[in-house]
Structure formats: structure tokens, C-alpha cells
Amino acid sequence: MSQYRLNNVEVGKNYSAKELDSFVSTTDVVLLANNESQLFTDPEREYKVTDEFEGFFEHSSDDGEKYFREKKAYVVEKV
Fold it and tell me: What does pTM read for this prediction?
């Protein structure tokens, strides 16, 4: 599995699910996929990184407020 260790992905490039799995395991990021919970079900499936964001808003269930989280988020789509 060490050959799949990614610490960066690029918008416009394709990656296998196993490469993205490694990326998420070694990097503090969020992945948003268009196939919902099936992102890691087929390790060989290819995904294209279509967008990158520096952070996102999140609703707190503790106090009801919305907070901006400075955490990279990537949108990936099945190819």
C-alpha cells in the first residue's frame, strides 16, 4: 500500500479509490463524492478531482451557530 501514499491531489487529474483512500488517511481533508457512500467500495474505480476549496461552513449542533472550518475540501466524480 505504500506506493499509493499521496499527500497531494490536483484538480483535473484522475485517481483510483485506493489512492484517494491513502490520501484521506494521511492528510486532514474532506472528500465530497457524487456516488455518496460508495467512494471506497471498488479500490480500482477512477475518480476525477473536479474542485478544491480552502474550507467550508459547518453547523454546530452544540450552539446552533455556523462556523467556517479552514480544512481543504475536494470534490471528486466517478469517471
Answer: 0.85
